[in-house]
Amino acid sequence: MRSIWKGAISFGLVTIPVKLYSATEQKDVAFHQVHREDGGRIKYKRVCSVDGEEVPYADIAKGYELATGEMVVLTDEDFADLPLTSSRRIDVLQFTPADQIDPIYFAKSYYLEPDGQGAKPYVLLRDALERSGQVAVVKVALRQRESLAALRVRDGVFVLETMLWPDEIREADFGFLEEDVDVRPQELKMAESLIDTMVADFDPAEYKDAYREALQEVIEAKVAGKEVVAPEAPAEAGPAVDLMAALRASVEAAKRERQGPAAAKSPGGAAKAKAAASSGAAARKAASDGADTEEKAPKKRKTRRSA
User: Fold this and answer.
1) What is the pTM (predicted TM-score) of this model?
2) Which of 162, 135, 161, 160 lies closest to 146 in space, CA to CA?
3) Distance between CA 161 and CA 108 in Å, rounded?
4) Is the pLDDT of residue 50 over 50?
């Protein structure tokens, strides 16, 4: 990793010099736009829409378009007068429990490494923060943008999580939140049972990007001159009308998956698997026939938006 920023954590009267590194990277397969006939790269020119002339970078400014269609042109001098700190400081504003920060605010993650003689105060603040069980709320200016951020500890290293501002979070304003939705107690209990069956410790190493791996295989096959065969897409199951039967079948399927092949070989395992399969088949049949076997709920429950 290469450092992309140097500055200091300002914690009271303590200054901790640090280097900043991107903590994440995208693993997408990169493509170029090319000419289909000969593979030549497609290039674009910076052309002015008014006079049709190509414009060099030195003559390009930033423009803000008004609702009237008129353009306000901003120069480097205009940006120089803005109150954006250039002190390269990470100012600690307060400490707060981590669960009080909704993850929707997090934008990008960075690692902080102590720079120069900053190792001792770095370790001191790191250990104190870990023992407190808190995260630090800080303010920092990166790439011509001032951001709130959370400073936490991960594997012995400070992680700076830049955050969006409150007015950058969209409100979830959906019509169904005002509708009356009937949920039977039996359905709720079965859904909770399904959740309990699928509870497990999170290990990200268990998951992989199957699409990216398949795409890489396609590219490698093209390079090797092999024939590429696209597998048939599995048929998608329609929504189950008999919600209770679908939930029950899902619980049984989740239990079988968690127990593994040994469950099918155990006494009674085959019978349970057969019963679960029959339950799933009944749910699919109910969905295809359009049968509505749900009972009416004794009470209506209205979903509400939080204030």
Assistant:
1) 0.66
2) 162
3) 6
4) yes
What is the distance between the alpha carbons of residues 82 and 87, in angstroms, rounded to a whole number? Answer: 14
pLDDT of 256-268, one tens digit each? 887 765 554 454 5
Amino acid found at 148: L
Query: Which tokens go with 255?
Result: 């239990």
Q: Is the pLDDT of residue 53 over 80?
A: yes
Secondary structure (DSSP) of 243-304: HHHHHHHHHHHHHHHHH-HHHHHSTTHHHHHHHHHHHHHHHHHHHHHT---PPPPSS-EE--
Residue-wise pLDDT tens digits, 97-132: 999 999 999 999 999 999 988 999 999 999 999 999
d(CA 6, CA 2): 11
Q: What is the 3-state secondary structure (H, E, C) of 133-201?
A: CEEEEEEEEECCEEEEEEEEEECCEEEEEEECCHHHCCCCCCHHHHCEECCCHHHHHHHHHHHHHCCCC
Q: What is the DSSP letter of 87?
A: S
Q: Crossing angle of helices 243-259/269-289, nearest 10°?
A: 150
Alpha-carbon distance 89 to 112, whole Å? 13
Are 241 and 284 spatial neighbours (Cβ–Cβ below 8 Å)?
Answer: no
Question: Do 227 and 236 touch, CB atoms closer than 8 A?
Answer: no
CB 142, CB 270: distance < 8 Å: no
- Single out the residue of 284, 261, 283 nearest to residue 273, CA to CA: 261
For residue 208, pLDDT beyond 60: yes
Alpha carbons within 13 angstroms on the beta-carbon side of residue 86 total 5
Reported residue count of the chain is 307
